[in-house]
Design brief:
50% of the residues lie in helices and 9% in strands. With 426 residues, it is α/β, with parallel strands linked by helices. It has 3 domains: 121 residues, N-utilizing Substance Protein B Homolog, Chain A; 89 residues, 3-Layer(aba) Sandwich (Rossmann fold), CATH 3.40.50; 183 residues, 3-Layer(aba) Sandwich (Rossmann fold), CATH 3.40.50. α7 links the parallel β1 and β2. Bound molecules: (2R)-2,3-dihydroxypropanoic acid.
Length: 426
């Protein structure tokens, strides 16, 4: 990797870090309050990371503008997936340095670093990350507990680098980023944060549903950009909500909360598809369990709340979009890879469905030049469903409780892999 490229990549990461840190400051503080002091002394970060991180302190808006230009230029020269991996890697290292909490972020980037090593074939690239990797390996080797974000891939090789690890505490309710059988096999407990983000996520599904139905983003943009010429009798026509039909794919906690809002807020009929029958949904909301085909055919709104796994990956494809009404609105607050995004873009462009609202995409972040952003009938938020102060603090609390219980051999507040009991590492 050429030095110049490395510099530009760092600057690109700097810009992302700037946004990341602003958005996450409160969470980081909340998490730190609980367990920041519990981490053992760590190795100092490599010099180049220190230098990079100290640049942040001198950051200015003008510098960000300059970086914008560098990012745009860099993106032309690099394959996006390389860029994304490198950004994340450097970003985490810098965050770690900034937060003076040296174990948490680097411990979880080891996999991304390895991925980077594989992506780049040049010796230089491998050398570039080796320094970082050594420090990370040493740190993770001594870790008793690990906090992971939903963007961190926690798999067998990573767990093998941490032979003393007792717990992985995932800062999310979803845990598709963690290889659960691999953790169980190694006696590592895995925690998540269920329950506390149900309302915030259901609210976000409704925000997207309303915004997409009423063409809010498109019309607000038009107004701002001078395209609001007069009151238009047939301008920006959207879809009504009252008395229509919501189809919930996956009637778990969040699916139920969305259905409840639709039922009692807009008097909607509720259909759902799930492997399990939901007695509460049927009794309290009058919901009807149907097969997916019927749900797609009869629903005005389709909101997905299913787990991401090998079976559900890419399940929303061309065939499924074709089964929906032309006026249908598709909402995803679950996981991006549940949807074949090419198929969705085509369905939105050619009018197979009316609109979509997405809080999750594949990849995340979705590159700024992605075709979905070009579509006025696609509302995209940057995975913010659980992003309220109260919810993130509650998630931080459970995450910390899980971590502490895991490290001390106690009962986790929310344990994902109960099969680990009886063989947990002590
Ligand atoms: C989760 O916790 O899984 C959510 O996606 C975070 O918003």
């Amino acid at each position: 990797m050429k030095k110049d490229r490395r510099r530009r990549a760092r600057e690109a990461a700097l810009q992302i870090l700037y946004q990341w840190d602003v958005g996450r400051g409160d969470v980081n503080r909340a998490v730190e309050t609980f367990f920041g002091h519990q981490w053992p002394d760590a190795q100092p970060a490599p010099d180049e990371v220190r230098t990079f991180a100290s640049g942040l302190a001198r950051d200015t808006v003008a510098r960000l503008d300059a970086i914008d230009a560098v990012v745009a230029e860099t993106a032309q020269n690099w394959r996006p997936e390389r860029m994304a991996v490198l950004d994340r890697l450097i970003l985490r290292m810098a965050v770690c340095e900034m937060m003076r909490d040296p174990d948490t972020p680097p411990a979880v980037v080891i996999n991304e670093a390895l991925e980077l090593a594989r992506t780049f074939s040049t010796e230089e690239a491998v050398k570039f990350i080796n320094g970082m990797l050594d420090a990370i390996r040493k740190k993770i080797a001594d870790c008793d507990g690990l906090v992971s974000l939903l963007t961190d891939k926690i798999d067998g090789p990573l767990l093998d680098a941490a032979p003393k690890l007792k717990v992985v505490s995932n800062f999310a309710v979803g845990f598709n980023n963690v290889d659960i059988p691999a953790a169980t096999e190694r006696g590592v407990a895995v925690g998540n944060t269920p329950g506390v983000l149900t309302d915030a996520t259901a609210d976000m599904a409704m925000v997207l549903l309303l915004a997409a139905s009423r063409r809010l983003v498109e019309s607000v943009d038009d107004a701002k950009e001078g395209r609001w010429k007069t009151w238009e009798p047939v301008g920006w026509l959207g879809q009504d909500l009252a008395g229509r039909t919501i189809g919930i794919v996956g009637m778990g906690r969040i699916g139920f909360a969305v259905a409840k809002r639709c039922r009692f807020g807009w008097n909607m009929n509720v259909l759902y598809s799930d492997v399990y029958q939901s007695q509460p949904a049927e009794t309290e909301l009058g919901a009807k369990k149907v097969d997916l085909k019927t749900l797609l055919k009869e629903s005005d709104f389709v909101s997905i709340h299913t787990d991401l796994n090998a079976e559900t990956k890419g399940m929303f494809n061309t065939d499924l979009f074709k089964q929906m009404k032309k006026t249908a609105i598709f909402i995803n607050t679950a996981r991006g890879p549940l949807v074949d995004q090419k198929a969705l873009a085509t369905a939105l462009r050619d009018g197979t469905i009316f609109a979509a609202g997405l809080d999750v995409t594949d990849p995340e972040p979705l590159p700024a030049d992605h075709e979905l952003y070009q579509l006025p009938n696609c509302v995209i938020a940057p995975h913010i469903a659980s992003a309220t102060v109260h919810t993130r603090n509650e998630m931080a609390r459970i995450c910390a409780e899980n971590l502490i219980a895991g490290v001390t051999g106690g009962k986790l507040t929310a344990l994902v892999n109960p099969d680990v009991e009886g063989k947990r590492r002590r």
